[in-house]
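Supplementary Methods, section 5.1.

A reviewer requested that the exact input to the structure prediction be made available. We therefore reproduce it here, unchanged from the version used in the analyses.
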Amino acid sequence: MRNNLKALYELQEIDLRIDGLDGERGQLLAEVEALDAKLAEAREKIAARQQESQGVETEKGTLEENLASENENIVRSESHLKEIKTQKEYQAVSKEITGAKKQITELEEQILQKINLLEELSGDIAKKEADLSELEQNVSVQQAELRTKVDALESGIKSDVANREQTLKGLPASVLKRYAKLRESRRGVAVVEAKDGNCMGCNMHLPPQLYNTLFRADDVITCPHCQRILVMRQEIMEG
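The structure derived from this sequence is encoded token-by-token as follows.
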């Protein structure tokens, strides 16, 4: 039984180490994803501005078509003036020409506004693309560093998993089942030291008789307060 307790204690240390390494790896991978999200956000902003620019370009094209149409109308109307014989008809055509010229002035102003907006959008897109390029370089460096750390952690996890498999071979299935249930219910800590009459898992005082029994290391004994498996580290390591 002493060997089982020693194996359980070693298994617990391995599992806690794996938990820690796995937690660090998860954090690093989350940082990698956060950097990817940052890039995606920057690209989305550029795409949105480009789409806005395309919309303005389309609006400008429509205005230019309307302007060309109004100019054609004026040319036709002015040509038609030469053929007019009555004053009333002349006034009507003149009014059409005046209205068309006013419309042309408004269209030209709108087109100018669109041109200015396009220039503004173009400058903003250029700046955002330059910022993105710089961000991509920085992210690439950061992600390379993070992945190097992840690889190192995964190497450590792989080594611990191999050690874990060896440790499992010496433990009965019933003990492993009990250990696994405790790990699940006690936040990963199933085996704890008993020291100076106390359970180091919950810091509660242990009954003297139970505590003395632990020195023999001949049975799996649990804390009456937190139900974790108790071991006297010095006893099992020296036994």
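The helical segments are 2-81, 87-168, 173-185, 208-214, 233-238. These observations are discussed further in the main text.
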